[in-house]
Design brief:
Radius of gyration: 21 Å
Largest sheet: 4 strands, antiparallel
Distance between the termini: 63 Å
Strand content: 15-25%
Order of helices and strands: HHEEEEHEEHEEHEEEEHHH
């Protein structure tokens, strides 16, 4: 079969099997403590035969995704000195080239992000260095793909934390510059866009919270302090500069790039430890309604508003 025809067939096959892409995450989304640094064998040419099961496990020798997340413990840096040591890395999937095939970005805590180019047929190539997204000397956590600058191409936002100085904890934003020799190339511009946050970030989520047509950023940050070390008094309204969550409003990133921290104005609480707030913010209106009904309170229209619009739900909170 000619090369062009084979490539087209691979792409059609990849699209037909798109629901199976979740399979790749079974061994990757944990990306934490079970991963090892062993060398992979030579890549195989053909995928394993499909069985009667709904999913077929594709080995790294076929897919080419060989990333691991080994953690190097030291006397000064381990789970006793940093309680989030075993929280693991992140994964994001999206089409970074515009060819209809999704790329995969995986993060390793001590090795930074790894970007895999989709070659079709569930085969990938590591293009981390060529794409300009290689990092070192940081503690990397979550990763998000979003069209931050509104140019129609997905960008990459990487979160950082760890027992590092502030500059080494700064989150990174890689703006998609287009293709070069078939590889997407990125430029790091988090500081330019105003979202090089230096807190203990876990994950960022982009969405249009104010309905103006561009993407805003809700940033989840988790304090490294042990829960037993936190104050027993109610510090919910005391904003922590490193551990509380943040909401950044996009004031026209497509016209030069500028995000503004509007957490206080929007009613986002940012105490030293606020991980529960992340799950509350992710609840649907239906779930919010069930919470109030379960407590015997009748929900009103305002109760169905989440915290992102600055209005607090009426009724008791758990």
């Amino acid at each position: 079969m000619p090369v062009a025809a084979q490539k087209e067939a691979d792409q059609r096959g990849a699209r037909r099997l798109a629901p199976l892409s979740f399979l790749l995450l079974l061994g990757l989304s944990g990306l934490g403590n079970a991963c090892s640094g062993s060398r992979e064998a030579a890549r195989t040419t053909h995928p394993p035969a499909a069985g009667k099961e709904l999913f077929t496990l594709l080995p790294s020798t076929y897919t080419g995704i060989t990333v691991t997340n080994p953690l190097e413990e030291t006397r000064d840096f381990n789970v006793f000195t940093y309680r989030n040591f075993y929280n693991g890395g992140g994964v994001a999937i999206g089409d970074l080239t515009g060819d209809g095939l999704p790329e995969i970005v995986l993060t390793t805590n001590q090795g930074g992000p790894r970007l895999y180019l989709n070659l079709g047929g569930f085969r990938f190539r590591d293009i981390t260095k060529d794409a300009g997204v290689a990092e070192g000397g940081r503690w990397t956590t979550g990763v998000t793909l979003a069209d931050v600058d509104g140019d129609g191409k997905l960008d990459i936002y990487v979160c950082h934390a760890g027992l590092k100085p502030g500059s080494a904890r700064a989150n990174t934003l890689y703006i998609n510059q287009g293709l070069k020799d078939g590889v997407p190339v990125f430029r790091e511009m988090a500081a330019v866009y105003g979202i090089a946050d230096t807190g203990y970030s876990t994950q960022g989520a982009f969405f249009d919270y104010d309905g103006d047509g561009d993407l805003d950023l809700f940033l989840i940050r988790n304090s490294p302090k042990a829960v037993a070390a936190l104050a027993t008094r109610n510090t919910r309204t005391t904003r922590d500069p490193l551990g509380g969550h943040e909401l950044y409003r996009n004031d026209g990133a497509g016209r030069g790039g500028h995000f503004v921290n509007v957490s206080d104005r929007a009613g986002i609480y940012g105490p030293e430890i606020g991980f529960e707030r992340f799950f509350r913010a992710g609840l649907s209106v239906h779930q919010q309604r069930r919470r109030y009904v379960r407590r015997g309170a009748r929900p009103r229209a305002a109760d169905e508003q989440l915290f992102l619009d600055g209005r607090r739900p009426r009724g008791r909170e758990q």
